């Protein structure tokens, strides 16, 4: 049984539950099918994405990193922010902007911070983690890493999150979790957090060496290389072993207002 916390749409109270082997969720003694639960975004802090933290993703861009203006790979974690306007829950539509053919699907493990973290050592990291969640770090395909890709990564609805937060103690090893992306039921990408350059512990230690993370913030471990593309009307499923899965359909931006269908 995995212990989880979750929120339901229209209810401010954070609920506690347990996920059993059959995939149902027990809340206050009652079993629910996940598809029957109107889950909401389970986090409310700042979400920080991490670039180039999968070995394969680093290798793809390594030649460009040796060119101007930087001429060397970064030595510290490269972060960006997914602002609150990007947050949507599992089941909500992902808006496809006009004149964009497809979106990159960025499957990411989200580390949920449990208490204020500043200059945390690797050996102490676990006590600062509340749990983990599934994040789809959606973006418009782009090549440049020399400037913040705000227009490509920070659009409305570009960060599905959920369906819940799995407690830290319910996860055997966050550095060895299988990640799968399926589009319309067909597996398009498989990877594992074993391929991280910086482990969960190393990443938090390196980030908190120069900035503070607060309770409720979420640090994404990164997105694997060869992110699959999803087009209008595609159903996207991001699943992380021991954490859960989120499903969202890509829909034309004209048919979506603030993450909801017209």
UniProtKB/TrEMBL annotation:
InterPro entries: FAH, Fumarylacetoacetase-like_C, Fumarylacetoacetase_C_sf, HPA_isomer/decarb_N
Family the UniProt entry places it in: Belongs to the FAH family.
Identification of the protein by name: 5-carboxy-2-oxohept-3-enedioate decarboxylase HpaG1 subunit
Keyword Metal-binding: yes
GO biological process: small molecule metabolic process
Naturally occurring in which organism (per UniProt): Pseudogracilibacillus auburnensis
Pfam families from the UniProt entry: FAA_hydrolase
Ranges of residues in domain Fumarylacetoacetase-like C-terminal: 46-250
Record key words, sorted: Metal-binding
Entry keyword Metal-binding: yes
SUPFAM superfamilies: FAH (SSF56529)
Any one Gene Ontology molecular-function term assigned to this protein's record: 5-oxopent-3-ene-1,2,5-tricarboxylate decarboxylase activity
């Amino acid at each position: 049984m995995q212990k989880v916390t979750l929120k339901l749409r229209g209810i401010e109270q954070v609920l506690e539950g347990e996920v059993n082997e059959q995939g149902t969720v027990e809340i206050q003694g009652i079993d629910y099918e996940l598809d029957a639960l109107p889950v909401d975004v389970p986090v409310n802090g700042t979400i920080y994405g991490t670039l180039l933290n999968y070995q394969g993703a680093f290798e793809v861009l390594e030649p460009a990193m040796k060119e101007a203006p930087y001429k060397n790979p970064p030595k510290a974690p490269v972060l960006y922010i997914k602002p609150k306007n990007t947050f949507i829950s599992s089941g909500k539509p992902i808006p496809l902007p006009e004149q964009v053919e497809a979106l990159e699907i960025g499957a990411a493990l989200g580390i949920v911070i449990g208490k204020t973290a500043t200059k945390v050592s690797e050996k102490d990291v676990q006590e600062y983690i509340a749990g983990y969640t599934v994040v789809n770090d959606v973006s418009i395909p782009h090549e440049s890493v020399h400037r913040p890709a705000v227009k490509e990564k920070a659009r409305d609805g570009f960060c599905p999150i959920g369906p819940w937060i799995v407690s830290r103690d319910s996860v055997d090893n966050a550095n060895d979790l299988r990640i799968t992306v399926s589009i319309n039921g067909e597996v398009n990408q498989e990877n594992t957090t074993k391929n991280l350059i910086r482990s969960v512990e190393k990443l938090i230690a390196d980030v908190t060496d120069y900035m503070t993370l607060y309770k409720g913030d979420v640090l994404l471990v990164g997105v694997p290389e060869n992110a699959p593309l999803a087009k209008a009307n595609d159903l996207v499923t991001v699943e992380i072993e021991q954490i859960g899965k989120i499903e969202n359909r890509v829909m034309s931006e004209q048919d979506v207002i603030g993450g909801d269908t017209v």
